[in-house]
């Protein structure tokens, strides 16, 4: 008889649920409209030409990272997104099709052996792609479970060859208001910026995403390259990255610039520390609409808790 020992972060796959079950009537109608347009959104992407790396998908799944719950349905995860370059609404999938992901280059600079700029397709093909099932927890207290495809950020750090004196990596998204109309507005200090410590960046969970649901990443999810740190709130997951700068100074992220008392550098998931305007004790699953208890570090503490020993004076969960 096989005895299965569940880890603390594993939750039943049957518990994932559609957000429309708890949205207002007006939001529900808007969501249904957006959901109906998912197929046409996909066709728009095809009209621009096939992704040059499409032959790499689906990548082999890394079975180390499991979920004890259903994956959030692709159609739901595809229309309920934050991407502030395309507006403050969740239903930005159609607007995000303005993003042009080719040509696309990624720059490595700062405290590195040699600065360089690499084409995204060359970078993707140089990395060992795999699929990982991760939970994602938004600071707004909603969650989903996603099959991301990409590579460990530790591999990118190896590629970049930072100096030993580098303590952090600062990441920047694209800046081009011609394809991101919201960047014309003074709502955010563009471009979007986020950062990690080198220890966080090289942690085994830290993942750079190039695909989703067994296919190249769609634009509303931050194609062609985005960050996923599943133990942190989702705003740390910078999208459409164009630059990695290695530095000895802690980066100040976009949301930290906007409101440091609500969105700090660390942003680790913690049910015991409320956001100043709402509780973080529970979360709503956008796959099923169910509400469930939030887990410390989003349930990934066995992988990351040691990163924060000795930092008790820091606001780790803001």
What would you note in describing this structure?
By secondary structure, the chain is of the alpha+beta class. It has a single domain (13-305), classed as Oxidoreductase, molybdopterin-binding domain (Sulfite Oxidase, Chain A, domain 2). Helices cover 18% and strands 20% of the residues. The chain contains eight helices and twelve strands. The strands form two sheets. Strands 3, 4, 7, 8, 9, 11 and 12 form a seven-stranded mixed sheet that branches. A hairpin with a 2-residue loop joins strand 7 and strand 8.
Number of domains: 1
Distance between the termini: 45 Å
The CATH superfamily name is Oxidoreductase, molybdopterin-binding domain
- Helicity, in percent? 10-25%
Radius of gyration: 19 Å
CATH architecture: Alpha-Beta Complex
β-strand percent reads 15-25%
CATH class: Alpha Beta
CATH topology name, in short, is Sulfite Oxidase, Chain A, domain 2
Largest sheet: 7 strands, mixed
Distinct helical segment count: 8
SSE run: HHHEEHEEHEEHEEEEHEEH
What structural class results from the helix and strand content?
Answer: alpha+beta
Topology, element by element:
Elements lengths: L24 H12 L1 H10 L26 H6 L25 E6 L5 E4 H7 L3 E8 L4 E11 H8 L7 E6 L19 E5 H4 L5 E6 L2 E2 L9 E3 L12 E7 L6 H5 L23 E4 L5 E3 L7 H4 L14
Parallel strand pairs: 1-10, 4-11
Antiparallel strand pairs: 1-2, 3-4, 4-7, 5-6, 5-10, 7-8, 7-9, 11-12
Describe the structure in brief:
With 318 residues, this protein is of the alpha+beta class. It has helices at residues 25-36, 38-47, 74-79, 120-126, 153-160, 198-201, 254-258, 301-304; strands at residues 105-110, 116-119, 130-137, 142-152, 168-173, 193-197, 207-212, 215-216, 226-228, 241-247, 282-285, 291-293.
